[in-house]
Structures are given as C-alpha cells and as structure tokens.
Amino acid sequence: MAQTRARNRAILEAFGIKIHEEMMENIEKLYSKKEITEKDAERIGNAVTVSAEEIQPEENQTKVLFSEDKDIEELFALARQYGAKVGEEKRFIEDKIGHKLDLNHPTKKYISMMKAQFLAKVVK
Fold it and tell me: Is the dihedral of CA 65, 66, 69, 71 positive or negative?
C-alpha cells in the first residue's frame, strides 16, 4: 500500500498539474455547452481529484470543486509576503513558477497546487 501511495504521489507530481488542467478545461467546456449540470461538473471533478484511499461515502462529501475569490486572494497574499507588489501578484507568481496561471474557473485543488509550486520556489 505504501508503495502504491508513493507511486501515485510521484505520478501526480510529475504529470498531475497538466492532466488536472486539461481535465478541468474539458469539464468547463461541457458545462458551458450545457451538456452537464453544475452538480455533474462537481461530481466529475471530485471523482478525479480524490484518490481511492480518500474516497468517502457520498453523503459525507462536502468538497467544492471550483475555488472562491478568497482562495485566489490567499495565493496573492502569499505572493505579497514574498515581495510581490499590489496588483502585480499574478505576474510575480508566474515568474517564480515558470508558467502562466489559469485563473478562469480555477479549482480549489489547482489553487492549492499553485501555492505549493510557488512555495517550493521561494522557500529554500
């Protein structure tokens, strides 16, 4: 079991962000074309963002798929702690992590991964 967890973490680290971004773009396309409901989008997003080890019975799941403005503001506040000027946080973070931030309908998991990437670059 520990070996499986380690392998899953390695795969997530290596490919997770790209796979997650593509998956969220596809969910957003389906949702915007009205091919799925918001509840379907959340259900799909939760299914692919939770490992088998973390799956709980459906009645106990309270995860929200898309992030709230406060989640992005926390990311920007973190950037300001490390030297970003007000209004330049997004560019500052992008410069540190080496790729563009996609803040159009971001998920909580995406924002968390961006925080982790940012912290990995600025905290040494």
Answer: positive
